[in-house]
Design brief:
By secondary structure, this protein is mainly β. It is 0% helix and 55% strand. It is built from no helices and eleven strands. The mean pLDDT is 96.
Length: 122
């Protein structure tokens, strides 16, 4: 099983910044997709940003001017600095990784981390 561990969440005032990190470990041959999702209380989980192994990125409109997702393939990690935080950014943030454990296509994985909480005070 692949483990993904998030870090970097916390309590921050509106207008402040945070840098979320996610590291994958376990038996991993390749990771084709790493993404950040968030779930606010009473709302559905939504994708915030994602990056593929070739560097292609995707952002949700509400944050695309305030974040830049990046990844370190050697460290099997993905990072998400978030600037100009707003109270509506308050949520649990989850990391997702999709890839293969071995060269075989039968070894594909699609795993999530436990999440890190971000709270933005007004």
């Amino acid at each position: 099983q692949v483990q993904l561990v998030e870090s970097g969440g916390g309590l921050v005032q509106a207008g402040g910044s945070l840098r979320l990190s996610c590291a994958a470990s376990g038996r991993i041959f390749s990771i084709k997709f790493m993404g950040w999702y968030r779930q606010a209380p009473g709302k559905q989980r939504e994708q915030v940003a994602a990056i593929t192994s070739d560097g292609s990125t995707n952002y949700t409109d509400s944050v695309k001017d305030r974040i830049i997702i990046s990844r370190d393939n050697a460290k099997k990690s993905v990072y998400l600095p978030v600037n100009s935080l707003k109270p509506e950014d308050t949520a649990d943030y989850y990391c997702r990784g999709i890839g293969r454990r071995t060269w075989s296509h039968r070894s594909e994985f699609d795993d999530w981390g436990q999440g890190t909480q971000v709270t933005v005070s007004s």
